[in-house]
Amino acid sequence: MKIVLDEKYSVSTDEYNYILHSKRMKGNKQDNLGYFPNLDTLIHYLLNHAILVSKAESFMEIKQLVEKVRDEIVSSLDKHSIRLNV
User: Fold this and answer.
1) I need a labelling partner for 53 at 20 to 30 A (CA). Which of 22, 28, 47, 63 fits?
2) Closest alpha carbon to 71 in 52, 7, 79
3) Which helix (H) or strand (E) segment is 37 a member of?
């Protein structure tokens, strides 16, 4: 299974892990950014990364960012009929 999160990131699965891929700027080659044993750890990684990159300065900014990222993840998973208990 492969889930495309956006034009740069995608997630695939192997027998044991979820694998986060990042597309290189040149060419179609992808780099593996990490192996995650379950979907929860992958989502926590994506949320932490989004918060660090955003430079949010208040709790409300972080809350809005988390809700936005959550909605993006849920809509990507919905396209593949994968349900989260959130």
Assistant:
1) 28
2) 79
3) none
CA 64 and chain centroid, separation: 16
Percent helix, strand and coil across the chain, each to the nearest 5 = 45, 25, 35
pLDDT per position as a tens digit, 6-65: 677 778 888 888 888 887 767 677 788 888 888 788 888 888 888 888 888 888 988 888
Helix (H), strand (E) counts: the chain: 2, 4
Query: Is position 48 within any domain?
Result: yes
Split into its structural domains, the chain has a count of 1
**6 backbone φψ class: left, alpha, beta (φ>0; ψ -120 to 50):** beta
Structural domain including 53 reads 2-79
